[in-house]
Amino acid sequence: MSERRVVITGIGCISPLGNDLGKTWDGLKNGRSGIRRIENIDATPFDCKIAGEIRDFDADGYFGVPKDARRSDRYVQYAVAASKMAMEDSGLDTGKIDARRYGVMVGSGIGGLSTVEREHSVYIEKGPRRVSPFTIPMMISNIASGIISMEHGLLGPNMVIVTACATSNHNIGEAWRIIKFGDADGFLCGGAEAAVLPMGLCGFSNMKALSTRNDEPEKASRPFDKHRDGFVMGEGAGVVMIEELETAKARGAKIYAELIGYGVSADAYHLSAPSPDGSGPAYAIGMALKHGKTNANEVGYLNAHATSTGLGDVAETKAIKLAFGDYAKNGLMVSSTKSMTGHMLGAAGGIELIASVMAIVDGVIPPTINIEEQDPECDLDVVPNVAREVPIKVALSNSFGFGGHNASVLVRKFEG
Q: What is the CATH code for 261-412?
């Protein structure tokens, strides 16, 4: 049996830069920040008053039955919307496939937080009988995948992996593994998040994880910059359609890129802080390169997890140096698109894989914006402030989550 290759045939995204691929990628290429003062909730009580919120979004049009949108948490609405975009972009006709061979793995790091907040308030104020019977199915982290499968009639493997901010990469990587193993021919996979809410802000803020550069929202997310003071929350969804190559070719699908590698590891170090030596992420990167039969110096671009925290950006810099050796500082371009989107938590890896794929497709490396004085401990080519037009063939995207979860995915320009 010949090796099964996996390609990306559809892309869908909802981001602080825009509610589709075109607007999101245009924002990333042009170094535009999607961070603003928070508008969807009253941020007055919170230390952090800025975020990458989704704006001008109407979920009804993305559901077969509009009332189902109103019975869905916001993270589910984003997931369904991005999945529908990816499905339509792929050109897949569900009437012409074996639905048992197509699955869904679209996860969320936090799940239905708005549902939990709202229904808990109802319970406190009005009593248990007034709590919605939809509370549990609306809040659970797997329900987006379930609803997406129902919307499109996909009967294949349906599950999610929840690993905080590594969620998207793990879902994409494990979907890739299932296709490689032969148990499916295609997946809608990625992640979604909608946690710019009082509990989300309190939780991260009280950890001292969030930026308080409230007077300059667009300059607040500054990975690798010496004066970074924490990350900025973002929300949205990033979903890709991945398919087995011969299946995709047989139906004449357009192919964005080939997904060639996936690496996973654990830090086994701390609840929320990264292992300071970078060895865990370095191992995941190495595994992705090994799967992809790719030498370190073949990677043209690395989309870093870099969230704009003091410890995290330095630890990832060390990991990149461990994994890439001298090439880390002599040829590898590294940027953090979180400087523009904020940290989209469980959706981050989906958006960042999409950015990595589009960097290959367009030959444009998105910048790390807000680099005013680069941290000497983050001494990589971080593509500061301005995008770079450079043709590349291979890109890697890192995602790391609380609990020490590390995941890297590797993509290559499609060639036959």
A: 3.40.47.10
Is residue 55 helix, strand or coil? coil
Domains 6-250 and 261-412 share a fold: yes
pLDDT of residue 2: 73
* Dist. CA 30–CA 7, nearest whole Å: 27
For the question of residue 291 being annotated catalytic, the response is no
Could you give the C-alpha distances from 398 to 51, 74, 169, 233, in angstroms and in order?
22, 26, 8, 18
Q: Which of 170, 305, 378, 405 is catalytic?
A: 305
Kindly state the DSSP code that residue 241 receives in the 8-state scheme.
Answer: E
Phi, psi of 352 (to 5 degrees): -75, -30
CA distance 191 to 324: 28
- Cα–Cα separations (whole angstroms), residue 247 to 7, 32, 95, 152: 10, 37, 15, 18
Domain 6-250 classified CATH 3.30.450.40?
no
Are 335 and 378 in contact by the 8 Å Cβ rule? The answer is: no
Look at the pTM and tell me if it is higher than 0.70: yes
Q: How far is CA 43 from CA 17, 110, 202, 240, 345, in A?
A: 21, 20, 10, 33, 19
- Per-residue pLDDT tens over the stretch 45-80: 999 999 999 999 999 999 999 999 999 999 999 999
Q: Provide the H-helix boundaries in 153-220.
A: 167-181, 198-205
Report how far residue 322's alpha carbon sits from residue 138's, in angstroms, rounded to the nearest whole number: 42
β-partners of residue 14 are 237
13 is catalytic: no
What is the tens place of the pLDDT at every residue in 234-243? 999 999 999 9
Catalytic residue chosen out of the listed positions 165, 170, 189, 291: 165
Copy the structure tokens of residue 376: 């000497």
Please indicate whether residue 305 is annotated as part of the active site. Answer: yes
Catalytic residue among 170, 291, 343, 405: 343
For the chain, the maximum distance between any two Cα atoms, rounded to a whole number of angstroms, is 64
Each domain of the chain, given as residue ranges in start order, spans 6-250, 261-412
Q: Rounded to whole angstroms, what are the CA distances from 203 to 5, 46, 199, 209, 217?
A: 41, 11, 6, 9, 20
